[in-house]
Amino acid sequence: MAGRPIASITISFGLVSIPVQVFTAAESAARLSFNLLHKDCGSRLKQQYICAKDGQTVDRADMVKGYEFAKDQYVQFTADEIKALDAVGSDAIDIVEFVPLQSIDPIYYEKTYYLAPDKGGLKPYALLVEALRDSKRCAVGSWSSKGKQHTVALRPAGGVLVMQQLLFASEIRAADEIVVPQVTFKDAERKLALQLIAQQSSAAFDPTAYTNEVKARIDAAIEEKVKGKEITLTDAPRRASPNVVDLMEVLRKSLKDAEGSRGRAAGLATRKPPQRATQATARSRKAAKR
To answer: Among 19, 109, 132, 250, which is least packed by CB within 10 angstroms?
Structure first.
């Protein structure tokens, strides 16, 4: 497994304790970030904090944290007070229950980590992975890290345990906050929509089929800049705002376009060799027999 572990903890449930190492699942180095520079000399800029009341620059030593409980009214907290309120870091994931994996809505997923067996934990680790896979359930528990408490779900992925850090229910906005007016559909419209979905359906999601085109363009531009070259800027094509007049007609056209794309792809795969090439091959075979 690539990378270094960010923590060593223990999975605990009942009388079972499994020592594991925690690895980040996402590669943060793959994300691009830009720094703010002085346009005239190209030097990096330093951030300053300005008091909104007197306009003075404030040093970090003179800063305190505060919570706005009303408009422009704050209560202050010292660093020691905030530290006392933080969750105490825990070296254990305390499993509370086992639930069906599909019962957790993906909207609750926040961060993903890999867990690998630490010294002396291989056998119970492998047993937990197999038991979760056979039961089609995941383990839900609690973990405290860096002053924060987290609810986590442990699920198997092949022979590895994946830890999903979950959002709390209070952090999720209810879907019914979004008001969508009721609409009625004709049976023919529903049938065409289902046909369109069927035309563009795949057996499973393949993440490797999707690439970050924006990052690729930025990477290429950075490389050109490093070489001292000027880059040519082109405006990205903008999609025209849809003006749906006849839903049935739009669905039919979409279905026809999808069928045409699949037909062209199938034609390229099964295209016969040109007639001249076939005749030339036949003549060469006759010559070989002679």
So the answer is: 109
